[in-house]
Amino acid sequence: xxxxxxxxxxxxxxxxxxxxxxxxxxxxxxxxxxxxxxxxxxxxxxxxxxxxxxxxxxxxxxxxxxxxxxxxxxxxxxxxxxxxxxxxxxxxxxxxxxxxxxxxxxxxxxxxxxxxxxxxxxxxxxxxxxxxxxxxxxxxxxxxxxxxxxxxxxxxxxxxxxxxxxxxxxxxxxxxxxxxxxxx
Length: 184
Hints:
Layout: H1 4-23, H2 65-71, E1 75-77, H3 90-102, E2 107-113, H4 120-140, E3 148-154, H5 165-171, E4 173-180
Parallel strand pairs: 2-3
Antiparallel strand pairs: 1-4, 2-4
């Protein structure tokens, strides 16, 4: 019969091995020609105003936070060390403008984010510039400045775990969060 202390030690070793395996970085994908595939940036749907089809998801109530997230999109992505709105992000931001014009009582907060590389201070400043560039985009298209607040989280709130190009690309974003005026 196995002693309780031996069983506890075996379980601890198992947990440690699992934790180490989970932290191991993934290897880059090889293309078969000996080259490594370039990192990909998060993709946007071709129809940013379209809803989700299929499944038992139900439909989001018009004007709700869920409607904004599902049918418009609440996040845009940036290139490395950049706060310039990418061309492929513009349709999503234009859809946000249309939605915000349709629901004039809604206020939003643009949350700027960065990947884990760089200092805390640098990433906070970069996140602030990203949030401000999205805010400026929305204001230039007719959304009143008083309805849009900004904040930077720098690298403090990643949406993708890991230290890979894919994770870093997902964490370089600006998130439009509804603050008030929409149902949950």
